[in-house]
Write a structure and sequence with these properties.
Elements lengths: L1 H9 L14 H26 L7 E3 L10 E3 L5 H52 L9 H51 L4 H68 L5 H58 L3 H10 L14 H4 L1
Antiparallel strand pairs: 1-2
GO molecular function: phosphatidylinositol-4-phosphate binding; protein domain specific binding
Organism: Esox lucius
GO cellular component, one term: trans-Golgi network membrane
Length: 357
């Protein structure tokens, strides 16, 4: 392109005058510049049209003068190849996630299946026992102890209900005595002719109110201890008994299933089922034996705890009631100290002004 331009520029005519000076020098230079830009633009267009295709260029892997084997055609490098690699990686991740989800779903399905089979067998055993068609495992001594506990709990609940009602009624009586003592004290100030009589009654009611608050403290302590024994200690043992009874039902259900399979034909498939049933039977038997041992231990400790607690609480209840109705204030206070019964200060049962608002 430069040689062509120089050749054309050499043949250009530059006008000069008689003295050898160039004519219209500025105009000639401007015209030459325009010609040069026109030629450059035409040559650039030719290069753009006839130049090499970018898709057919090559990348030399070595330095200058390297072997021809190091030339890599750029047309062989395609964008979709990179995208396909990324797509393959994403597909692997999706496949691993799907396999994980499938594994979780299979585990849930297996658990539901086992639960359904177990429920069916237990329901079948329960109806068989109810209609007298099936046999059940019975521990006569343990069953008797469980029945005694349930009967004891019902009776203790009745005692708890009655003492709670007594506490409520006695609290109302103490409040009435306090109000009556205040009324007598007020009348003794306003009735000079009956001042002594009203004063005696006011002092008597105040003393009864004070002793009544002490008795209320003893009864509340008794009610709280009975409530803990019935609704926590006994209830915990009964929950273990419920688990034991459920384990007993499952044990009998799998035992009946094993006996039924043992009476059938002894082909290969049946022997496999018998072996599986034997393993399940052993698992249920171990569970049943473990829970039966837990129930026996809890019943023993519950009986010991019940005797200890009730001995203390019944003695407290008797001494407090006797001292109150005998009018023996010193014995009543001594009873409270003996059993570490702390009385609440007057007005502590009333809600605060924040609770009232």
């Amino acid at each position: 392109m430069a040689d062509s331009f120089m050749g054309k520029a050499a043949t250009m005519e530059i006008p000069i005058n008689s003295n050898g000076e160039t004519l219209a020098e500025d105009d000639s230079l401007e015209q030459a510049t325009k010609i040069q830009w026109t030629l450059d633009e035409k040559d650039l267009q030719q290069v753009m049209v006839s130049g090499p295709n970018l898709n057919e260029t090559s990348i030399v892997s070595g330095g200058y003068g390297g072997p021809a084997g190091g030339v890599i055609p750029t047309s062989s490098i395609k964008g979709p190849a990179i995208r396909s690699g990324m797509h393959h990686s994403n597909s692997n991740q999706n496949m691993s996630a799907e396999e994980t989800n499938r594994g979780v779903a299979v585990e849930k399905l297996d658990s539901v299946k086992k639960w359904g089979i177990n429920t069916y067998k237990c329901t079948k055993q329960m109806f068989s026992e109810r209609f007298g068609r099936g046999s059940r495992t019975v521990d006569l001594e343990l069953e008797a102890q469980i029945e005694v506990l349930r009967d004891t709990k019902r009776k203790y609940e009745s005692v708890l209900r009655l003492t709670s009602a007594m506490t409520s009624h006695f609290y109302n009586m103490v409040q009435t005595q306090q109000a009556l003592g205040d009324a007598f004290a007020d009348l003794s100030q306003k009735s000079p002719e009956l001042r002594d009589e009203f004063g005696y009654n006011a002092e008597t009611q105040k003393l009864l109110c004070k002793n009544g608050e002490a008795l209320l403290g003893a009864i509340n302590f008794f009610v709280s201890s009975i409530n803990t024994l019935v609704n926590k200690t006994m209830e915990d043992t009964l929950m273990t008994i419920k688990l034991y009874e459920a384990a007993r039902l499952e044990f009998d259900a799998y035992r009946a299933d094993l006996e039924e399979l043992s009476l059938g034909p002894r082909d290969t498939a049946t022997m496999v089922r018998i072996e599986v049933a034997q393993q399940q039977y052993q698992v249920q038997r171990d569970k049943y034996e473990r829970l039966r041992s837990d129930v026996t231990i809890k019943l023993k400790f519950l009986e010991e705890n019940k005797v200890k607690v009730m001995h203390k609480q019944l003695l407290l209840f008797h001494n407090a009631i006797s001292a109150y109705f005998a009018g023996n204030q010193q014995q009543l206070e001594q009873t409270l100290r003996q059993f570490n019964v702390k009385l609440k200060p007057p007005g502590s049962d009333k809600p605060s002004w924040l609770e009232e608002s």
